[in-house]
Amino acid sequence: MLESIDSSKAPPQQALHRSPSVKAPPPLLESFGSARGMVAKTPLDETERLLSLQMALKLADLGHLSAPLHVHLRWVAALEEEFFRQGDAEKACMLPVSPLFDRTKPGITKSQVGFFDVVLLPCVTQFVIVFQGCKPMLKGIRANYKHWERRDAGNVEATESPKQPVSLGEVTERE
User: Is the pTM of the predicted complex or chain greater than 0.70?
Assistant: First the structure.
């Protein structure tokens, strides 16, 4: 079971070093980067390595958000169908239906701009500050974000949306 971390019990910064003459390491963002600003340096400690790997894994999980629009839309459609099927199963078991899982209500396709604004863009923007080689990922995400903004405004052609439903098997086939 995970326990919450009480930062008030953390040792003082100077206690983390063996010698009082060693200065505390700079904050995470200052410790990364290179002379050319193209590649990230090695993280300073195990905590930074773990955080970097966790963020990279999370962004890999969300990778379709940076894919070309036609691929991204197929993944969103497949994910929405997966959510709706889970909602159907929850209803069948007489359980409350999870948010965004009820097919009689708007699904994730109606909340994409909010997801990009609140979760995705802040996360990826900070990641790219540290790992500048990921800038193309941010560029793809911004392009797809513009699609969802246009769609919310009613300015998207119907041909830009994938056929429903989409199976995950269809999504993974080469385009």
Answer: no
> Helices (DSSP H) in 39-161: which residue ranges?
46-61, 69-92, 112-115, 121-130, 135-152
Which residue is it, tokens 């060693």?
22
pLDDT at 70: 94
Distances (CA, A) of 99 to 14, 72, 82, 118, 150: 46, 22, 13, 17, 24
Average pLDDT, stretch 110-120? 93
Structure tokens at 84: 């709706």
- Mean pLDDT, to the nearest integer, of 7-36? 43
Residues 6+ apart with CB under 8 A from 123: 55, 58, 59
